[in-house]
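Workshop exercise sheet. Pairs work together: one partner reads the sequence aloud, the other fills in the structure field after running the prediction. Swap roles for the next sheet.
Pair: D.N. / O.F.
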Amino acid sequence: MPVLVFTSARFGEHTPPPGHPDRPGRQDVMDAVAGQWRQRGGGVAQPAPAPRDAILRAHSARFVETLEAAAGRAVMLDPDTFTSAESWDVTQLAAGAALGAVDAVLEGRASRAAALVRPPGHHSSRDQARGFCLINNAAVAAAHALARGLERVAIIDFDVHHGNGTQEIFEADPRVLYVSTHQWPLYPGTGRADDVGVGAGRGFTVNVPMERGATDGDYAVVFDGIVAPLTRLFDPELLVISAGFDAHEEDPIGGMRMSADGFARLTGRLCAVADGCAAGRVVLVTEGGYHLRALAASLRASLSAMEGGPEVDLVPGAGGGSTGRGLAAAEQARAVQSAFWRGL
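Structure field:
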């Protein structure tokens, strides 16, 4: 069965102030990628807005009321997070795309699914919007899967920034494995290797902070040495990829040296893990990625990898072999996580 893409041109109606990195042009890129996907024979679906009860599985009523109160207005929610008149409607639709992707794979209508959405979500916690993010789409997707009866869901976040909101939402829940590879130090300043969750969730939060300048080869070392084996040990029934592409070498916000080919390889590795323990079920939800050409190439390559096909339209660049940054990050994470995961 094919990869099914959920997206909507309405995501471009979320308009932060001029000069903001999460500009509407990012949706133009996603629309173009979805159009190319359709031309290749792939499925593209329009999402429905997420119902309130689905959002409340990941966020508090106070959080939802704050966003509802901002409907129809331009509001600053934190120093870099803003709404515009349509943002409340748009962010419900983005969360709905993530829900639709989960439903599609759980109901067998697609082998894998992708929600190409904005605004992003992984910095939003249960009670607070921040870091360009409003509703936490990946968290809503994971919580929905649990509500549908799954017992174990893994969220793998390869955005250049740590997904502090997603971690906070699930940090005490052993049903959700949250794994983040991220540049360190960088906003939001969270995600230390020894931050492993709380209470019953200890060991189910896995942080792999990486030094600025990490390459495709460094990420491959981390994924092969930590992310893939640990995810297999967790044995999830669904794998959610929190897919930020701002670790790309051309991205203006991060300082990593990933290429589109590198993102395709990471996505392919995760799909291979899912083939072995989750009946192949993968849902990709977009996060960051602020260089438009790099975002387009990375999305195309990742969708191709989800389909099992060759990487296409790659942005030429360094990519590169391991510099030692990946090995150092993997060794640090292993030293912490081996207390929770035998055989890692």
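Discussion prompt: The first strand starts at residue 3 and ends at 6. What would you look at next?
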